[in-house]
Predict the 3D structure of the following.
Amino acid sequence: MKFILRILLTALAVLILANVLPNVTVESYISAIIVALVLSLLNFIVKPILIILTLPVTIITFGLFLLIINAIIILLASELIGGFEVNGIWWALLFSLLLSFLQSILFSFLKEDKKN
């Protein structure tokens, strides 16, 4: 249940960012949900492989290259999904940063209080 809520909140964040950023477009609500699903799959499967392959560069840049990896994941999702478009790596970088920020805000509402 929590996974479905996280996907829906990510789709909401994608829709918000598509309305705010000029070079990011999402055609419909269904496209936003598909973007959220594809991003979660890419982050689960492709991102660890990219991190391992670019480990020396990531170490040299003190981890800042991970931002570029996130932008590459966004651009890859843009290529895979027909109703989602990001124009350029800088917009993908800004989109990934703002998406992470919005997700942290939205996911904070899902946290349960563990008071006994």
Observations:
- The chain has one domain: 2-107.
- The mean pLDDT is 92.
- Residues 2-107 form one domain.
